[in-house]
Structures are given as structure tokens and as C-alpha cells.
TrEMBL record:
Anthranilate 1 binds at G81, N112. It comes from Ureibacillus acetophenoni. It is an enzyme of class 2 (transferase). The keyword Cell division does not apply. Anthranilate 2 binds at R167. This is Anthranilate phosphoribosyltransferase. Binds 2 magnesium ions per monomer. 5-phospho-alpha-D-ribose 1-diphosphate binds at residues 81, 84-85, 89, 91-94, 109-117, 121. Belongs to the anthranilate phosphoribosyltransferase family. Homodimer. Its EC number is 2.4.2.18. Residues 8-65 form the Glycosyl transferase family 3 N-terminal domain.
Length: 344
């Protein structure tokens, strides 16, 4: 069986079932499959539209190929989004992850460099002084010390190097954008995921259910933003104990000011690092409110709070008390210490 066999089926608009997709993915990861053949398959899949079964199958194979990250027993959350919305917003989920950790939530943040955005999670972390070449042991130590760690995708998914080159060449979102948040090597009981496809929110929650999440929130914001935006046209779904329930939020009911997506636009990694630091120092802006909202969703998914409105106030207090900024500074200090040890 060759990858062209599956590409031909997909090109005709035919969906692959779970087992067929597992076979196709194994061929993608086979060094003998050419990059052009992989690109053809990914583009055909994107044009057809990926299904929940196809995404779950890819996630399952990828996770089985990931390096093991031996974290202590416990409940962990990831708030990594799919990317690929093309809206060039600042790094909302990375900022929110720091706020969550400062509020006592244990975060294992999966991230990557920019693929189809101006500044990926790893890009802004590097601009802040947090390097991305942690060993697995470094990542676990950071988690134990600070309640948060950043798992840089190429470090934990060594087989993805060739795929990354193919994705860069395609230059547009593929199924790998959809699957990134599903392949965290740490076992997650709960998750918040922003996706760039409003029509797929409920199905994506079903994928999380297939993969064993006990509780999760999926959101697609204005214009397909892969975060909750400051408008009343976000699309939400809550997964809880196997049931998927759509829900709505009004910014006014949460005490937040509605704002257009353009108000959340970022820039280069250095630009976004400045926005992030100013925000954690308490500077009020649409950026600040967006982080409050997305942090509140994480707090609610994790079970720290009983309502998203309560989560807004917990997140606000974490920032204004200085705890979130202190958490960032501790993480930067940890990173600098690792580099010093390596230099000796």
C-alpha cells in the first residue's frame, strides 16, 4: 500500500475510517515516502475536509511516537490552540498559561515555532528569555518547581522534522494544525482548545472524548480565531463526562468590554513579548481582557472555579497581585540557570 492509494481516495471526497487513517499516517512517517507525496496527501485531505475519525487516528499515532515525559501523578491542562487562523493575534494562550500557573493550575503547554502565524508560542518564549532546547528532564524539573512547563513539539516529537519541512513548504493550515493540541505527550484529563473552524467545534470536542479527556472546552472565536475573542460570536462546546454541550457567553455578562479582533493583533515575537510583560504588570487593554477570558475558560475546565465569571475574577487577581509576573520571572530564571549549567 502506498500513500498515493489514500490520496486518490481522499481526492474523490472519500473519508478514511480510523484504521485506514492509521495506515496512511504510518506511511507519512515512513522515511521512504517522499515529501511531495506527503504534501499531496495533506493538501487533498485539507480540500476534502478532515473528519473526527481522521484527526483522532493521526493524534493516536503521533502520541505513540512521542518521547515519554515522566511527570508526577496529577491533573494537568494544556491550552494550546490549533493555530492557522491567519489573524496574527498576540500570544494569548501562552500568556494565559502563565496566569493559570500563577493561580495554582498545573499546565503542560505544548507549543511550536510559527508555522502559519507571525509569532508561535516558542518564538515569544524565546523573546522573553525562555529557551526552547530543554531536555525532557529539564521540562519535568520546571513543572515540579513552577507548576508549568513548555513542551516544544520538535523536542518531544522527533519524527516530525520532515513533516515540519513539508508544512512550511505548503504554507497553509493542514490536519497537523488541527492535531497539534491533541498530541501532548503528558496524559491530560482536561483541556481548553481554540480551533480555527467554527463549524467543527462540536466534532473537535468529540475527538477529545475519543482520546479520553474527562472535561474540556473547545472554542472558535471571531473569524475563526483559535482563541476566545472579545465578541459575542464565539462558538463554544463543553465536554463533560462523555457529553458534548454547546454554550454561549456574552462579554457584558462577564464584565468585559467587547472589542474587534483587530484590537488583539500582535506583531513580531519581540513585540508580543512587550505586550505580554506589560499585561502581566497590570496594563489595561483589550489584550488584558482577552487573557482574562481565556484564563477563566482554563480555570473552569480545570475545575478551579464553578463559573467562567468567577474565573475572570481569579485571573484578574492573579495578575493584579503580581503573582503572574512573578511566575514569568521565575520561569525565565529557571531557563537562565539551565544555560549557565550547560556553559560550565
Amino acid at each position: 500500500m502506498t500513500i498515493q492509494f489514500f490520496t486518490n481516495h481522499v481526492s474523490k471526497g472519500e473519508n478514511l475510517d480510523f484504521e485506514e487513517m492509521v495506515q496512511a499516517v504510518e506511511l507519512i512517517f515512513n522515511e521512504e515516502t517522499s515529501k511531495s507525496e506527503i504534501a499531496d496527501f495533506l493538501i487533498a485531505l485539507s480540500l476534502k475536509g478532515e473528519t473526527a475519525q481522521e484527526i483522532a487516528a493521526l493524534a493516536t499515532v503521533m502520541k505513540s511516537n512521542a518521547l515519554k515525559v515522566p511527570v508526577p501523578e496529577g491533573t494537568y491542562i494544556d491550552n494550546c490552540g490549533t493555530g492557522g487562523d491567519g489573524l496574527k493575534s498576540f500570544n494569548i494562550s501562552t500568556t494565559s498559561a502563565i496566569v493559570l500557573a500563577s493561580a495554582g493550575v498545573r499546565v503542560t503547554k505544548h507549543g511550536n515555532r510559527k508555522i502559519s502565524s507571525a509569532s508561535g508560542s516558542s518564538d515569544v518564549l524565546q523573546a522573553l528569555g525562555i529557551h526552547t532546547n530543554f531536555t525532557i528532564n529539564d521540562s519535568v524539573d520546571l513543572l515540579k518547581e513552577e507548576g508549568i512547563t513548555f513542551l516544544y513539539a520538535p523536542n518531544v516529537h522527533p519524527k516530525l522534522k520532515r513533516i515540519g519541512e513539508v508544512r512550511q513548504a505548503i504554507g497553509k493550515p493542514t490536519i497537523f494544525n488541527m492535531v497539534g493540541p491533541l498530541t501532548n505527550p503528558v496524559h491530560l484529563k482536561t483541556q481548553i482548545v481554540g480551533i480555527n473552524r467554527p463549524h467543527f467545534v462540536k466534532e473537535y470536542a468529540e475527538v477529545l472524548n475519543i482520546l479520553g479527556r474527562e472535561r474540556a472546552i473547545v472554542v472558535s472565536g471571531t473569524l475563526g480565531m483559535d482563541e476566545a475573542s472579545l465578541s459575542n460570536d464565539n462558538t463554544f462546546a463543553l465536554l463533560e463526562k462523555g457529553e458534548v454541550t454547546p454554550f454561549e457567553l456574552r462579554m457584558e455578562d462577564l464584565g468585559l468590554s467587547p472589542a474587534p479582533v483587530t484590537a488583539l493583533r500582535g506583531g513580531t515575537p519581540d513585540d508580543n513579548a512587550v505586550i505580554l510583560k506589560d499585561l502581566l504588570k497590570g496594563k489595561q487593554s483589550a489584550y488584558f481582557d482577552a487573557v482574562l477570558l481565556n484564563s477563566a475558560l482554563g480555570l473552569f475546565a480545570y475545575g478551579t472555579v464553578d463559573s467562567i465569571k468567577e474565573g475572570i475574577e481569579v485571573a484578574r487577581e492573579a495578575i493584579l497581585s503580581g503573582r503572574s509576573l512573578a511566575k514569568l520571572e521565575s520561569i525565565i530564571g529557571f531557563s537562565e540557570e539551565i544555560l549557565k549549567e550547560r556553559a560550565v
